[in-house]
């Protein structure tokens, strides 16, 4: 599909974020990105899927081009807000310090770039205190600071940190 991300590793190329994360979890399980507890693991996958399948694709650049320049901002804001409304309700029952409890998980890896997109499209985060609190906690961690979307080589100059 000529999309990113793609990871060349162990003699194979894997596309799609969640497939990459699951492969890394299975082949390099330290640190764990999926909890041992099956209920917590289900919550992590549910949150990750909500973000990766329910929010992000609807406001990515290929969709926004189809929406048209004049409607892009309002479309992105509506899609992100709709997804964040559902996500905020879920996180109110699953969150500890992070999305699911107090350990960083695959859900957190999905959350930070989506909040960055919300900022990019000027979504008011006031109605989402749990999302905002978790994102703020995650951004204190070096791994999230150095991998933030605003620090990627292909980030447009106006969005760079």
TrEMBL record:
Give any GO molecular function from the UniProt entry: glutathione transferase activity
GST C-terminal domain span: 37-157
Q: Name one GO cellular component term.
A: mitochondrion
InterPro entries for the chain: Glutathione-S-Trfase_C-like, Glutathione-S-Trfase_C_sf, Glutathione_S-Trfase, Glutathione_S-Trfase_N, GST_C, GST_Zeta, GST_Zeta_C, Thioredoxin-like_sf
Q: In which pathway does it act?
A: Amino-acid degradation; L-phenylalanine degradation; acetoacetate and fumarate from L-phenylalanine: step 5/6
Q: What is its EC number?
A: 5.2.1.2
Q: Does the keyword DNA-binding apply?
A: no
Q: What's the catalysed reaction?
A: 4-maleylacetoacetate = 4-fumarylacetoacetate
Keyword set, alphabetical order: Isomerase, Phenylalanine catabolism, Tyrosine catabolism
Q: Name one GO biological process term.
A: L-tyrosine catabolic process
Which cofactors go with this protein? Answer: glutathione
Q: Where in the numbering of this chain does the GST N-terminal domain appear?
A: 1-32
One short Pfam family name for this protein? GST_C_3
Q: Would you identify the family this protein belongs to, as annotated?
A: Belongs to the GST superfamily. Zeta family.
Name of the featured protein: maleylacetoacetate isomerase
The organism of origin for this protein: Vicugna pacos (Alpaca)
């Amino acid at each position: 599909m000529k999309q990113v991300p793609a990871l060349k590793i162990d003699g194979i190329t894997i596309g799609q974020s969640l497939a990459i994360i699951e492969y890394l979890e299975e082949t390099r399980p330290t640190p764990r990105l999926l909890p041992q507890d099956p209920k917590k693991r289900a919550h992590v996958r549910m949150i990750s899927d909500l973000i990766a399948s329910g929010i992000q694709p609807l406001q990515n650049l290929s969709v926004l081009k189809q929406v048209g320049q004049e409607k892009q901002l309002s479309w992105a804001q509506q899609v992100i807000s709709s997804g964040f409304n559902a996500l905020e309700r879920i996180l109110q029952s699953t969150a500890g310090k992070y999305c699911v409890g107090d350990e960083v998980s695959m859900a957190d890896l999905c959350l930070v770039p989506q909040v960055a997109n919300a900022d990019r499209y000027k979504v008011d985060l006031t109605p989402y205190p749990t999302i905002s609190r978790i994102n703020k906690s995650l951004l204190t961690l070096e791994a999230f600071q150095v991998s933030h979307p605003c620090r990627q080589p292909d980030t447009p100059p106006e969005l760079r940190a």
